[in-house]
Amino acid sequence: MHIFFYDKTFEGLLTAVFDAYSRRTFPDRLLRVGEPAPLFADTTYTVVTDTPRAERVRLGLMRKLPAEATTLILRAWLSEQPTVDELLFRYIRKALDAPESIATNFADPDVLEVRNLALKVSREAHKLKQFVRFSKTADGLYVAPIRPVYNALPLAVPHFTNRFADQPWVIYDLRRRYGYHYDLQTTREVTLADDTTLRSRLDPDLLAADEQRFQDLWRTYFRSLTIRERLNPRKQRQDMPVRFWPHLTEMQPEGL
To answer: Which residues form the DUF4130 domain (predicted)?
Structure first.
């Protein structure tokens, strides 16, 4: 059994592919640096992430695959599923070795799985565009906490940068402890060692003077559109997943 250790970044994965071809040794397992190696491992190798080598693999994929297929690879990576790196390693190796594009060879289980994971991440990004709700703090910053299943925020950020270009905002992924801040000029990634301060800024007493009134108006509008005789909770949960409800203004009691 051949084991590669790497830093569990996407660039590190591409570097691992480059090194595997250079060494003519392909890993059976990909583990994070510092993880214990399985018993009876034949060889181990530690990948040092290298941008030029990763870029050569990326360019090689662009020559072998259509643009939409290379996009699927990145979106599947954002799924953060267990062993997704090993799945993508196999996919990339097949793509580089095949005489023709494997992009639509869905009879191959790896090709199908990469496509399915990418679709799940894309759907999560679409849900973020629908269900992110900003709250205006006393200093004029619009804050939106989220907790998506997949790491889909990078795919949704361009939408918010274009749609809300006239206001400063932060969208923060509480699950992964990072987010994006837009300062009316640029959007940049931010990481907080402790998100307690961010959470505290959403306390009703620290919101802008008119924010609570706007939230109450939005809840009133939302409920005024409800036709109680046609309530369908199951359909509502299907269209508006419950995992988003804690951060949806319209799903909170009035006056909170």
So the answer is: 84-250
